[in-house]
């Protein structure tokens, strides 16, 4: 789907590129949602765009994610988005600026997530723009708010797990796996956020920005720095949570070992007595005692009870 935001603050949607009448002087923004690689060549020709940044999305160098030429600015980065199995999946976003038009390429999943998590500001129908700069900065702000929302979501899940940990005395491997999932999601957010911050820092230094844009980008960078601090807090909380659960698992294992020790000691003494009198030597005077059997039975019972009394005084149970 293609969504065009005109300068008269009207939004129109198109299903194919052929339907579009390209009038640069009347357009602020063009959004390509769920674009395919086969469409890129047609898009490049119709809108006269340099799409070489699409082939560099896997490169680590920041120069591959921020490309500025005399007539075009290209940004590309990844945003984490929740999949069905509670893991984040990285989705690509491309933003190109040419002929005073903001071209945005993104997936429908990210489009939906941005709309759901930032409904109070991400509403083009009720938001009016006078320049493409305003629309571009608005998009940057929405992405920053999206980072804040998903970090807050991870923080909420960590707090819920912390509360569950405080109330629970038994833990399973699933709890540690869940911590690993949260850590993985937090890691993806940090990597993506760091990449986005570096892009904004380069954008801030660009000669193409006005004073207003410079200040607004600086504010977004400051907001992202605060979000980055919360990400670090999440890692610290996860470390504490992991240590807490491991400590409780060790205590639970110690209790199990204590029970096994008590049972072993209580059984070993009667077993020793039975073993001695089960040897059937000829010269065993106890075998001729009239009360030998009840005496041994009492000895077996006492040898079982005395260790229990001892461990009870030691508060092992």
Automatic annotation (TrEMBL):
The residue ranges crossing the membrane are 256-279, 291-311
Chief localisation class? membrane
Query: One cellular component GO annotation, for this chain's record?
Result: plasma membrane
Its placement in the membrane is given as: Multi-pass membrane protein
The source's superkingdom equals Bacteria
* InterPro entries in alphabetical order: CorA_cytoplasmic_dom, CorA_TM1_TM2, MgTranspt_CorA/ZnTranspt_ZntB
**Where is the protein localized?**
Cell membrane
Q: Which UniProt keywords apply?
A: Cell membrane, Ion transport, Magnesium, Membrane, Transmembrane, Transmembrane helix, Transport
UniProt key word Heme? no
The reaction(s) annotated as catalysed by this protein in its Swiss-Prot or TrEMBL entry are:
Mg(2+)(in) = Mg(2+)(out)
Molecular-function GO term, any one: magnesium ion binding
- Family designation: Belongs to the CorA metal ion transporter (MIT) (TC 1.A.35) family.
So what does this one do? Mediates influx of magnesium ions. Alternates between open and closed states. Activated by low cytoplasmic Mg(2+) levels. Inactive when cytoplasmic Mg(2+) levels are high.
Please identify the protein, giving its name as recorded.
Answer: Magnesium transporter
What is the protein's species of origin? Lutibacter flavus
């Amino acid at each position: 789907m293609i969504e065009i935001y005109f300068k008269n603050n009207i939004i129109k949607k198109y299903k194919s590129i052929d339907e579009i009448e390209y009038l640069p002087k009347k357009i602020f923004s063009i959004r390509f949602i769920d674009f395919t690689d086969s469409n890129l060549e047609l898009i490049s020709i119709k809108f006269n765009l340099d799409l070489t940044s699409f082939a560099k999305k896997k490169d680590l160098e920041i120069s591959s994610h921020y490309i500025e030429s005399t007539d075009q600015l290209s940004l590309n980065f990844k945003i984490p988005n929740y999949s069905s199995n509670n893991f984040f999946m990285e989705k690509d976003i491309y933003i190109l600026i040419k002929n005073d038009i903001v071209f945005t390429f993104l997936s429908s999943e990210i489009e939906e997530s941005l709309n759901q998590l930032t409904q109070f500001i991400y509403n083009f129908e009720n938001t009016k723009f006078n320049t493409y700069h305003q629309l571009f900065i608005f998009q940057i702000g929405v992405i920053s708010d999206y980072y804040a929302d998903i970090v807050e979501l991870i923080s909420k899940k960590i707090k819920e797990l912390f509360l569950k940990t405080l109330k629970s005395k038994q833990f399973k491997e699933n709890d540690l796996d869940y911590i690993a999932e949260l850590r993985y999601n937090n890691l993806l957010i940090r990597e993506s956020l760091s990449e986005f911050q570096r892009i904004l820092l380069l954008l801030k230094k660009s000669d193409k920005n006005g004073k207003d844009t410079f200040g607004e980008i600086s504010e977004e960078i400051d907001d992202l720095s605060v979000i980055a601090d919360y990400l670090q807090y999440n890692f610290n909380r996860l470390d504490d949570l992991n240590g807490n659960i491991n400590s409780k698992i060790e205590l639970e294992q110690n209790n199990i070992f204590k029970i096994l020790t008590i049972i072993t000691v209580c059984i070993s003494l009667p077993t020793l007595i039975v073993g001695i009198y089960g040897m059937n030597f000829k010269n065993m005077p106890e075998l001729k005692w009239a009360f030998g059997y009840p005496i041994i039975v009492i000895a077996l019972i006492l040898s079982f009870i005395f260790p229990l009394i001892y461990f009870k005084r030691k508060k092992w149970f």
